[in-house]
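Researcher: Predict the fold of Aminotransferase class I/II-fold pyridoxal phosphate-dependent enzyme.
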Amino acid sequence: MDKHVPAITGGTAAEIADSVRALVERDELRPGDALPPVRTLAEQLGVNRNTAVAAYRRLARSGAVVAQGRAGTRVAEHSSVAQEGYAEAGPLRDLGNGNPAPELIPALGPVLEAAAGRPVLYGEPVIDPEFEVWARDWIAPDIPEEQDGWRLTLTSGAVDAVERLLSQALMRDDAVALEDPCFLSSIQTVRLGGYRPVAVPVDEEGMTVEGLRAALDDGARAVVHTPRAQNPTGASLTAERAAALREVLADHPYVLVIEDDYFSLLSRRRFHSLIGPGHRRWALVRSVSKFVGPDMCLAVTATDPGTADRLAMRLSPGTTWVSHLLQRITHALLHDEDTRELLERAGAHYAERNLDVARRLSAAGLPVTAGDGLNLWLPVAAPARVVAERLMRRGWLVRTGDEFRLADDGVASRHLRLTVHDLTAVEVDALVADLAAVVAAAPRTS
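Model: Structure tokens for Aminotransferase class I/II-fold pyridoxal phosphate-dependent enzyme follow.
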């Protein structure tokens, strides 16, 4: 140990974890401080070694401590949580932001006055009637006919929907199956909620069958997945993979399946669902932020009736409803012919730009497949952090795959996530040349 550790007390895993948390709150344990080894702690407290292991595991799941293998367990450092969006890049060209193109987001000015309408008062329906008709038409074709009685709920974006769906269905320490690599917000939602993330590997067809089966065998009570344009990989479910995953889920009808179809209207791929005809707990979430704008915090969530009731109760103490003004603006925009034409151009733009840059990187000896979505998931034959550091010296800011990983196996990621759709031809030439040079010169081991 680095220094004397204040006395940890307790006879159960919960009591020991609470004792450590209290010591942290009183600053008797500080970020970076080492905790006693499991065997030592068990002997000091006179408890079974498994009890000490369970206590440290609870603390690690809550983010209070970090397990470092042979280096022991330490109080977690207070660090900023990775987020999507612009970074403090300074003079660097930011390729990690994951943002849509501003010029391909429809202008709100023309519809604002018409959308205002009369004031909405307490007690009125939470979904604007005209918006509900449009939303049902949008989502109904992708719900199995056998899933009759499904209901709509509105939330303040897809991340809000996922957080509320999990909280109405799970208890602390429940296991949640997440894609690995995974969307940043999903990682944070699960960890901050105190749930146990279970990594399900993702390949070019989406979640793997064996990975999902293993997560369910490990006790996963919820599954969060992206059917199209998976972030960060760009993978989309194929019909064959979706059918195989539905077969696995058929033996677990009460596991909550959340489908985050965030890229829907911009996607170049067909939608394939994990929700089978007999599945009992499910949600299909579609946000408008990628095509109407990130500031339009609105998502449509279709669910089975029981989940809809519980989700409505989770909304009632706080938000209660999503602004009818947002609903009317979204409805007006998506009924507008010019907006629909702009969205078609936007979807084509992202796909074409990613494909063009992928072809040029592949020709330069950096093979990459252009998936769906806003980003490229580039494999590199060297630790990604080393490549990213050397790219910074050449003026580029990128995200490494380490930020998106769930599996804690100590192996450095060998992927970069690049947002390239807004690069000029000159910038693409420079990026391809710099990437090729940096990867060629980088060491193959950490």
